[in-house]
Amino acid sequence: MPEYDLPTPGAADIRFYREHGYWLAPRILSDEALESLRDHLARVVAGEYETARLPLSRSPEAGEPADKIVQVNNAYWTDSVISRLALSPVIGAMAAALTGAKAIRLWHDQLLFKPPQSGESGQVGWHQDYGYWQCAEPAQMLTAWVALDDVDEENGCMKVVPGSHRWGLIPEGDFYDQNLAGLEERIEAAAGRKLEPVPCILPAGSLSFHHCMTLHGSGPNRSLRPRRSLVIHLLPEGTRYRAGTPNEGHVNVRLLSGRDGDPFAGPFFPVLYRRDSVGAWEIEDGAWTATE
Ligand SMILES: O=C(O)CCC(=O)C(=O)O
Predict the structure, then answer these.
(1) Which of 146-160, 202-216, 247-261, 274-288 comes out lowest in average pLDDT?
(2) Is the beta carbon of 218 within 6 A of some atom in ligand 1?
(3) Which fold has domain 14-274?
């Protein structure tokens, strides 16, 4: 029996996303699914890869002390449970509703782990994802940020700047700059506006969505709790390769091996959801699943 109603966003939620550039979605994962995901995340962080396939990249390397933020890109290559979440048709259906896309594909995933009391070494600098993704257009890509723990300001939840998806691209943004105050000053000077971020406070098992132009970042984990998440970067179907941008070196350009104007498609950009391709939903292993 389903534990939760199928949480496709309604008209008011879609309006909210389009106006503010983010949306907090309800819970989609049961306690059982969360427990399994946390267990598999710990294995990936430790470098124990179930599939024997390596992730695209990671920092720090497996075996090095995990005393700062741990980032594993394309963790879904390494583990079946992580893969199931990264390719969830429910998340795809929500993203399709928010963007109006016919289908949603994976751009890449990013497992993020902020260890307890990791302080400023866990911070993520203010940035717009599109600053890293100009090799893809149009700029309507989005991210599903899935909380595997309760997240709040104490353990360094993500913060977004509402409405900033309409500000244009601000080159000062930098995921890796942990001097948040200095970065804020430079971004405010460049944008000619004040940053007024709001925290994405989420219970474990729920998620937020943000537009690829929305400014976001996060502060330190000062708590005794971990902050574990799977960040799932998504492409509306029809997003195309744009050659010759500052992000020509993005690994997805290499994975596509295409020409200017080619759609990002094929096995490296798997489909999560295609409208009308799935008719029914059920809870399987504690998570929502499409049945056909
Ligand atoms: O988890 C964070 O604090 C930042 C995540 C992020 O940059 C993203 O979801 O695009």
Answers:
(1) 274-288
(2) yes
(3) Jelly Rolls (2.60.120)
